[in-house]
Amino acid sequence: xxxxxxxxxxxxxxxxxxxxxxxxxxxxxxxxxxxxxxxxxxxxxxxxxxxxxxxxxxxxxxxxxxxxxxxxxxxxxxxxxxxxxxxxxxxxxxxxxxxxxxxxxxxxxxxxxxxxxxxxxxxxxxxxxxxxxxxxxxxxxxxxxxxxxxxxxxxxxxxxxxxxxxxxxxxxxxxxxxxxxxxxxxxxxxxxxxxxxxxxxxxxxxxxxxxxxxxxxxxxxxxxxxxxxxxxxxxxxxxxxxxxxxxxxxxxxxxxxxxxxxxxxxxxxxxxxxxxxxxxxxxxxxxxxxxxxxxxxxxxxxxxxxxxxxxxxxxxxxxxxxxxxxxxxxxxxxxxxxxxxxxxxxxxxxxxxxxxxxxxxxxxxxxxxxxxxxxxxxxxxxxxxxxxxxxxxxxxxxxxxxxxxxxxxxxxxxxxxxxxxxxxxxxxxxxxxxxxxxxxxxxxxxxxxxxxxxxxxxxxxxxxxxxxxxxxxxxxxxxxxxxxxxxxxxxxxxxxxxxxxxxxxxxxxxxxxxxxxxxxxxxxxxxxxxxxxxxxxxxxxxxxxxxxxxxxxxxxxxxxxxxxxxxxxxxxxxxxxxxxxx
Length: 582
Hints:
Elements: H1 22-53, H2 57-70, E1 76-77, E2 83-95, H3 103-113, H4 119-127, E3 134-137, H5 142-151, E4 156-165, H6 173-176, E5 178-179, E6 185-187, H7 188-203, E7 215-216, H8 221-237, E8 242-249, E9 255-261, E10 286-287, H9 293-303, E11 311-313, E12 318-320, E13 323-325, E14 334-336, H10 337-342, H11 346-356, H12 358-367, H13 392-399, E15 405-406, H14 408-419, E16 423-424, H15 434-440, E17 442-443, H16 447-463, E18 477-487, E19 490-504, E20 511-518, H17 536-547, H18 573-581
Parallel strand pairs: 1-7
Antiparallel strand pairs: 1-2, 2-3, 2-4, 5-6, 8-9, 8-20, 10-15, 11-14, 12-13, 16-17, 18-19, 19-20
């Protein structure tokens, strides 16, 4: 039955134009739309080309405005959302030389408000009548803007630009880096931001305020401030040339704090000749002293050739050619593997490395990331100084931290792997989840070797060189390191670099704390000693006492003895003999 309307009468069908094809009509409309878009884009392209080629004052103002807008940068936040770096709008002074009526009068008026202007340079810019635009002064004050505005000088104007500000000053200067006058990152995380795509967004004009996603750092501003404060106090107390430190999450590789003193305020960048410009944890490379013994013992234990019950002859210096390897505090007796660690025996550690052999030693350090440049978001990094010809004598000295110079942060990353179950995780200054870290990690030692290393580091805090780093209730473990600095090709006994690597809690490590002091001096309270156990270790303890609550670590009333960390086995004979020998 034919369809019908409400009246029941069939509605007539619309008449079709003779010969009209619906598909042809649709194609025609589509062509018309395409043609219209083509015309619109042609007009836009022509206008853009015109503005780029136009050199009059108006075009100059438009071009400068576009450039200023393109310099917007994303905020940088700490892990808790605190602002570390942000943009603010600030006026800049420009001129349109074509519109300047009297150059001398303009100069006289401007100099009255801004006497610091380079008048010779300004005169040259104002006199260039072929130019449509010229900067006269970037980032002027609001007061200066108001005063110049009241002068009413033809051809003088203002543009609002983005200026980078750092509310926390120098607190994280080496991590954040800084920008240049055009708001382009040239150091630190600021440079990484540009290399990660911001520069491209600037080029295509898409870097606007609304387009910027904040950069979330792994840094905790509270922890950063506390560490910096303690390092400043330690540097003053021990009369050290420099001090540095870092706190890493051993399970994610996140750098929760990093300080290098002297430092600088990113708002007032340091020059390359300034000592404050050096980030000593990534750009500097150093012989790490006895902290490297942790790597040597882990290598020996992981090989299966050495156990915690193995013994080592430290009764006399180890002779190698014309060289004699001595212990700083000689025991003149046979030492167990744990005793080698807690007495920091050079002789015992060297014998372990020789047992593994040169090639095995090199392969292990390569696997632990100690022979290649450390790569992080920070562009400032240095290659390790590796011996060109690596023989047995090199293995002997590198075993206890001399003869191989590395960036302290890469040494810290390796020690994290020794205590987190054996997984080497690349350090990062950005927030990272444990799942992301696991995908990036590489198993470098057996989990059971990691258990033994946690035991040794805790034992060292109970009975060895790390006792002054102990903090009641936090179950700290660690290793000291003291290296003589190389001056004019020779080791200088009175110029020391001291370091301490601390972990907490030792039975289930979450954080590693690294502290370094450059040329600390002996004090009456240290009995004249300037070695790590007397300065870097207690400094680490003070840092841990301040930051542990910030990191969510609670004090524990009952702490197990170090031997309890040896899972699935009885207390070893070596540990029992230690108790009787102290």
